[in-house]
Design goal:
With 353 residues, the protein is mainly α. The chain has two domains: 134 residues, no CATH class; 146 residues, Intergrase catalytic core (hpI Integrase, Chain A), CATH 1.10.443.10. It is 52% helix and 8% strand. The strands form two sheets. Strands 1-2-3 form a three-stranded antiparallel sheet. It has a three-stranded antiparallel sheet with strand order 4-5-6, with no helix packed on it. β5 and β6 form a beta hairpin. It is globular. The relative contact order is 0.09.
Length: 353
């Protein structure tokens, strides 16, 4: 989606943020979706504000602002995946907007801890990863003498991250959004391919051949070939598409990640699903289903594209525990049935043995 002049858009942890920023001026947050009435009202107010004074756009040498300007076009930053670049740039731009004039080589003691204290665990971990990579670049290019992130650890989140959709939640969504609707197609692509949002919104019929859908993961660059589930095939056949990608906006354009998340939230709200139900949770639900079907960690990773088996292991361990628990209870119930049918003396001898 094309944004109005001077508008920047960033996506952080699945949420889209938009700002008005004219050269030399501070960023102004814009509410709602681009081109919506609240968005355009705030945009017009920012556009009508007095222009910045001459010289305000100059970057102070040695500042955090100047170091970031050198970091973004570097090979170090360019080597990151496109998804990581977007996430980390949004994080670093927030730091820059708040403290861009600080000298990068003379950050106040405890500055990094101060930044982390204001964040929730998941956000803090992502922020520290981005800041650490940036600081190592600064060390490499002698912009700073010591790494201010050295020895600092972000608290480990207590949760498992994104909520894994339950079977009841999946059924509620399917009840509200019938086969043939865009909402159902988006849901099915996420659930039956186990891919991330950024990969799903780029899928199209040109990626399908011989019953397989080819995916090159945006985050990892890994090429995958995923067999198309019959349920997904039925939904694809029932959903008309005249465009290169399966999922498009009303104007026929491809979705941006943030705009897609906002629209998927509307579809979830229509099904009266909790806020915890996000598109990424469908990926986790797909992995859970595979684990419950008895798939190994490597088999699940072959579909999801996980490079590390630690995340996949969580699903297989939970599924194994459930299967073992059910088998144990069934065995006990069968034993009780046989026990009740035995004569009293025989039952006592069996127990003593």
């Amino acid at each position: 989606m094309k944004l109005p002049k001077y508008v920047q858009g960033f996506v952080v942890e699945g949420r889209a943020y938009h700002y008005f920023r004219r050269a030399g001026s501070s960023r102004v947050p814009l509410p709602g979706l681009p081109w919506s009435p609240p968005f355009m009202a705030a945009y017009q107010a920012a556009l009508d504000a007095a222009p910045p004074p001459i010289g305000a756009a100059r970057t102070r040498p040695g500042s955090l602002d100047a170091a970031l300007a050198q970091y973004y076009p570097s090979r170090d930053f360019g080597a990151l995946s496109a998804g990581t670049q977007r996430l980390w740039r949004a994080i670093l731009e927030g730091w820059r907007n708040e403290h861009g004039t600080l000298p990068i080589g003379k950050l106040p003691p405890g500055h990094i801890e101060y930044m982390l204290e204001k964040m929730k665990p998941h956000a803090a971990r992502n922020w520290l990863k981005a800041a650490r990579h940036f600081c190592r670049f600064c060390i490499k290019h002698k912009l700073i003498a010591t790494d201010p992130t050295l020895g600092i650890k972000a608290s480990v989140p207590r949760s498992d991250g994104h909520h894994t959709w339950t079977e009841d939640e999946l059924a509620r969504y399917e009840t509200v959004h019938p086969i043939g609707s865009k909402a159902r197609l988006a849901f099915a692509l996420g659930l039956y391919t186990a891919q991330r949002r950024g990969d799903v919104i780029r899928m199209g019929r040109q990626h399908i051949k011989d019953g397989l859908i080819a995916v090159k993961q945006e985050k990892t660059g890994a090429p995958l070939y995923i067999p198309i589930d019959p349920e997904l095939q039925d939904i694809l056949d029932a959903t008309p598409s005249k465009h290169l990608t399966f999922l498009t906006t009303k104007s026929g354009k491809s979705y941006g990640a943030g705009f897609f998340s906002d629209e998927f939230r509307v579809w979830c709200d229509a099904a009266e699903l909790p806020q915890a139900c996000t598109f990424h949770g469908l990926r986790k639900a797909a992995c859970r289903r595979l684990a419950e079907a008895g798939c190994t960690e490597k088999q699940i990773a072959a579909v999801s594209g996980h490079k590390s088996l630690k995340e996949v292991q969580r699903y297989t361990e939970k599924a194994d525990q459930l299967r073992l628990a059910r088998a144990a209870m069934a065995r006990m119930q069968n034993h009780n049935v046989v026990d009740d049918e035995m004569p009293t003396n025989t039952r006592r001898r069996a127990r003593s043995e």
